Amino acid sequence: MFIQTSMWGEVEVQEKEIYQFPKGLPGFEEETEFALIPWEDTPFSYLQSVREKELSFLLVSPFTFAPDYSFELSEVDKEELQIDEQVAVFSLVTIHSQANKSTMNLLAPVVLNPEKQLGKQVVLHQSGYDTRHLIWAEEEEDARSVKGGV
């Protein structure tokens, strides 16, 4: 299947990369079908609306930058997503002009069931996580600068 994107123009996606979000995403409830498109050679992916080329979200596995991240998915969410075993968790990323200020949303992860191709953004009401968790800790950024990195 081919879809239109604002970033890459027309791209081909496989059926297994398309997820149904029965309730949409907060603020975009009418958009219920998204393709998960990996950004090659990076830890990031795009969640691209199948219908609206201007609507996409940058995602990353929160475990890449916050290995101790954990939460318990509610029974209601498990039922809605029809989760038996497999689950994929992503955080929405906000890119800032200064890369070291980029953040990920740990309070409301995007949870995917790759077997049933269902997705939902889940709000973790009683957690200590926030919506603007720095992706790169200050120490990591300083180390990369010294080594000639980003």
From TrEMBL:
SUPFAM superfamilies, per the entry: BH3618-like
Cellular compartment(s): Cytoplasm
InterPro entries: Flagellar_assembly_factor_FliW, Flagellar_assmbl_FliW_dom_sf
Keyword Chaperone set for record: yes
GO CC entries: cytoplasm
Record key words, sorted: Bacterial flagellum biogenesis, Cell projection, Chaperone, Cilium, Cytoplasm, Flagellum, Translation regulation
Gene3D superfamilies: BH3618-like
GO terms (BP aspect): bacterial-type flagellum assembly; regulation of translation
Assigned protein family: Belongs to the FliW family.
Subunit composition and interactions: Interacts with translational regulator CsrA and flagellin(s).
Physiological role: Acts as an anti-CsrA protein, binds CsrA and prevents it from repressing translation of its target genes, one of which is flagellin. Binds to flagellin and participates in the assembly of the flagellum.
NCBIfam families reported in the protein's UniProt record: PRK13285.1-1
Protein name per the record: Flagellar assembly factor FliW
Gene name of the encoded protein: fliW
